[in-house]
Amino acid sequence: MQIISAEPLTPQAFAAFGDVLSAEGAPERMINEGLCARHHDRARLDFSSGRAGISIFDAVPRELPYEFDLVERHPDGSQSFIPMTAAPFLVIVAPDEGGRPGRPRAFLTSGGQAINLHRGTWHGVLTPLAAPGLFAVVDRIGEGANLEEYRYPERFCVVAPGR
Amino acid sequence: MQIISAEPLTPQAFAAFGDVLSAEGAPERMINEGLCARHHDRARLDFSSGRAGISIFDAVPRELPYEFDLVERHPDGSQSFIPMTAAPFLVIVAPDEGGRPGRPRAFLTSGGQAINLHRGTWHGVLTPLAAPGLFAVVDRIGEGANLEEYRYPERFCVVAPGR
């Protein structure tokens, strides 16, 4: 079994897979008489022939070390995961290599970070690390299965950063 | 100054203004090999001639009792507020009465609830009650100001439920 060290989630490290949505950096605008910072339009959304929808996901919490062999992707749309708690969660993604996922990478959010997976990005299933595992998910509503799954021939084990 | 008692946020009480997004009730589907419940497509989104975007709002926390006299609405699109913490927040809305807002109502979320304001709904500014006041906001990106403001001739004071 191969070991994967989780990395801290940063916009730079995650750029090939999606967007990190957070209040870091200077806001584009101050609104509400100066009492609210608007970090404007931070996700590259793409719903192809469908439309945007918001669903609520309630997932069983996992823990590190975390083993997996399954990833999936949505060829027809982006998918954003917005945690509804301040708890960090685990994000597993993989580069595409000719239609199949390459070696996975794992990122650990810092709390206060949501993510948007770009259309077609290989990723692991939703993996909160604390209860409740509650997320708002912005993804494509439309025709078609919009799902490809891939099971690696070996299992991977994600360990905490620096382990 | 008029007193408004905050009400618990329920889908029924909020129906005239928008949607309550939560994991309450039976999910439409179980996904990820049974480890995640998907409460599917819970928001009535409407971006008219624009498109959906996700922005991050970072607002100064307020406290009860809370005074206000200003509300606003977005004639061209719905607006969803997804809290990125488990802390309850205050939601102020008002019915439209011939192009002007009527008497406001105030709702207190229970944690684990996001909201989607239907297109054109009069509402108060974003009012978290704890730090950090961090929200993902799904709203319309497009041309035009998409904003109407109204200042009531008197101030209102929102107090805790049952006060």
Walk me through the structure.
The structure is a homodimer of 163-residue chains. Chain A has one helix spanning 11-14, and strands spanning 2-5, 7-8, 18-21, 29-31, 36-39, 51-59, 66-73, 79-83, 89-94, 96-97, 100-101, 105-108, 114-117, 122-123, 127-128, 133-141, 148-159. By secondary structure, chain A is mainly beta. Chain A has a single domain, classed as Ureidoglycolate hydrolase (Jelly Rolls, Sandwich). In chain A, strands 2, 9, 12, 14 and 15 form a five-stranded mixed sheet that branches. In chain A, strands 3-13-8-16-6 form a five-stranded antiparallel sheet, with no helix packed on it. In chain A, strands 1-17-7 form a three-stranded mixed sheet, with no helix packed on it. The radius of gyration of chain A is 16 Å and the shape is globular. Chains A and B meet through strand 5, strand 6, strand 8 and strand 16 of A and strand 5, strand 6, strand 8 and strand 16 of B. Strand 5 of chain A pairs antiparallel with strand 6 of chain B, so a sheet runs across the interface.
The figure for the number of domains of chain A is 1
Residue runs with pLDDT of under 50 for 5 or more positions of chain A: none
Radius of gyration of CA atoms of chain A, rounded to a whole number: 16 Å
Multimerization status:
homodimer
The name of the CATH superfamily of chain A reads Ureidoglycolate hydrolase
**DSSP strand tally of chain A:** 17
- Biggest interface, chains and residue tallies: A-B, 47 and 47 residues
Identify the CATH architecture of chain A: Sandwich
N- to C-terminal distance of chain A: 16 Å
Work out the helix count of chain A. Answer: 1
**Approximate shape of chain A:** globular
Taking the sheet with the most strands of chain A, its summary is:
5 strands, mixed
Percent range for β-strand residues of chain A? over 45%
